[in-house]
């Protein structure tokens, strides 16, 4: 049984970007970019990969801040239409074949360690969560360096 949960981008931020077509970064009311998918990559809301030609929204996202300050913000994509946010258990299958790196952080967002899931996502997650100081893990594309999802321990 998995002792972790995978969290997509907060649904409120996705809805903000879709309905206002402005960036949800606090103090940065710039228009978002809407483009057709031409390369691989997942929607950060549903964690399914885009199909060629899918319309997607590009905006800035800060995985370290609920208030979405611009420090540490980077570009991410979501579907331009409402999609079901990822809520399933385990690691999302659509992400398994992407070039991923898992980066572990403390409660104060200090980097601890990184793992490439060459032996499988669950093994890499287990290794990182075996370190007592690790509070959360970011799933990132190791080629593009962009944020994909957050992994937290499941509280018992």
Overview of this protein structure:
The chain has 156 residues and is of the alpha+beta class. Helices cover 12% and strands 29% of the residues. The protein contains 2 helices and 8 strands; from the N terminus they run βαβββββαββ. A 5-stranded antiparallel sheet has the order 1-8-7-5-6, with helices on one face. The longest helix has 10 residues.
Labels describing this entry:
single chain, 156 residues, alpha+beta, five-stranded antiparallel β-sheet, three-stranded antiparallel β-sheet, 2 helices, 8 strands
SSE topology:
Layout: E1 4-7, H1 11-20, E2 33-36, E3 55-61, E4 74-79, E5 100-105, E6 111-115, H2 121-129, E7 136-141, E8 147-153
Antiparallel strand pairs: 1-8, 2-3, 3-4, 5-6, 5-7, 7-8
Describe what is shown at a glance.
By secondary structure, the chain is α+β, with helices and mostly antiparallel strands. It contains two helices and eight strands, in the order E-H-E-E-E-E-E-H-E-E. The model has no long low-confidence stretch (mean pLDDT 90).
């Amino acid at each position: 049984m998995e002792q972790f949960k995978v969290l997509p981008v907060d649904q409120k931020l996705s809805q903000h970007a879709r309905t206002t077509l402005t960036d949800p970064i606090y103090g940065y009311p710039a228009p978002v970019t809407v483009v057709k998918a031409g390369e691989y990559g997942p929607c950060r809301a549903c964690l399914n990969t885009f199909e060629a030609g899918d319309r997607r929204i590009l905006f800035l996202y800060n995985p370290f801040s609920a208030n979405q300050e611009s420090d540490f913000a980077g570009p991410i994509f979501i579907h331009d239409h409402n999609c079901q946010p990822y809520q399933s258990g385990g690691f999302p299958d659509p992400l398994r074949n992407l070039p991923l790196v898992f980066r572990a952080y403390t409660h104060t967002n200090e980097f601890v360690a990184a793992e490439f899931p060459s032996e499988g996502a669950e093994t890499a997650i287990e290794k990182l969560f075996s370190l007592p100081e690790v509070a959360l893990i970011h799933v990132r594309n190791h080629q593009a360096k962009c944020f994909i999802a957050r992994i937290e321990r499941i509280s018992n």
